[in-house]
Amino acid sequence: ADENDVKDEL
Amino acid sequence: MNIFRLAGDMTHLASVLVLLLKIHTIKSCAGVSLKTQELYALVFATRYLDIVTDFISVYNTVMKLIFLGSSFSIVWYIRHHRVVRRSYDKDQDTFRHYLLMIPCMLLALFVHEKFTFKEVMWTFSLYLEAVAILPQLVLLQRTRNIDNLTGQYVFLLGAYRGLYIFNWIYRYFTEPHFVHWITWIAGVVQTLLYADFFYYYFESWKNNVRLQLPA
Questions:
Q1: From A1, A4, A6, residue closest to B183, measured CB to CB
Q2: Burial, B212: exposed, middle or buried (Cβ in 10 Å; 0-12, 13-18, 19+)?
Q3: Percent of chain B at pLDDT above 90?
Q4: A8: distance to nearest CA of chain B, Å?
Q5: Does B79 touch chain A (CB under 8 A)?
Q6: A7 in contact with B, Cβ within 8 Å
Q7: Where does B81-176 have alpha helices with state H?
Q8: Quick one: CA torsion of B137, B143, B146, B150, rounded to 10 degrees?
Q9: Residue range B47-95, pLDDT digits in tens
Q10: How do residues B8-61 score in pLDDT, each as one tens digit?
Q11: B64 and A10 in contact by Cβ < 8 A?
């Protein structure tokens, strides 16, 4: 997931 | 990671632990909607498809495993545990939850950020989570007596996405190009669905009376 992606959230 | 998101994740974790505590210790799922639990298991299964391909952090992977494991074990408990399943009220938990899945899947096929399998499934999980609480809220209105643990479970589950909204506001102002309308709208709709529950939950807490939803 790149920096400002929301995929790093649960 | 910001404080709003950490608080949101911890609130979400607390909701899952409260429900597991209720079901595992008192061996009862009275007042708990199996339909909502099945929808949440599907939400996590479709949202965390990247758990094996994209490693983000130990925290992220551990939390995904906890949410996947707990949601599927809660479904197993209610459906198969010889004691717990007796307390499941299938005559009251009648929400046709496939009527929620189909529109969410159709919407995900048309409204998404990228047309890839993982992205469409991820978007489907967002839409489905927004409405997944409906069978539970309907069941609460039918079963007059809401025990404390079930009330706390629903409250924490609703609060976690509300905290995520603050997280998105924070990220919008601190990260360039952090714009994710689909996530934002789904999260706001999800939180708004709890609005009346939150109202009655605070009223019962303020007046120190048992939580009762109007029929």
A1: A6
A2: middle
A3: 95
A4: 6
A5: no
A6: yes
A7: 98-110, 117-131, 134-142, 148-174
A8: -50
A9: 999 999 999 999 999 999 999 999 999 999 999 999 999 999 999 999 9
A10: 999 999 999 999 999 999 999 999 999 999 999 999 999 999 999 999 999 999
A11: yes
Smallest CA–CA separation between A1 and chain B, in Å?
A: 7
B104, B124 in Cβ contact below 8 A? yes
* Segment B193-198 mean pLDDT: 96
pLDDT at B172 over 90: yes
Residues B193-206, mean pLDDT to the nearest whole number: 96
In this complex, which of A4, A7, A8 lies closest to B177 when CB atoms are compared? A4
Between CA B160 and CA B70 the distance in angstroms is 16
Per the CB < 8 A criterion, the answer to whether B128 and B71 are in contact is: no
Helices B34-47/B134-142 angle, 10° precision: 170
Residue B204 · residue B210 · CB < 8 Å? yes
Name the residue among A4, A9, A10 with its Cβ closest to that of B175: A4
Residue A4 touches partner B, C-beta closer than 8 Å? yes
Residue B138 has pLDDT above 70, yes or no: yes
CA-CA distances (angstroms) from residue A10 to B9, B45, B135, B181? 8, 12, 23, 17
What is the residue-averaged pLDDT of chain B? 96
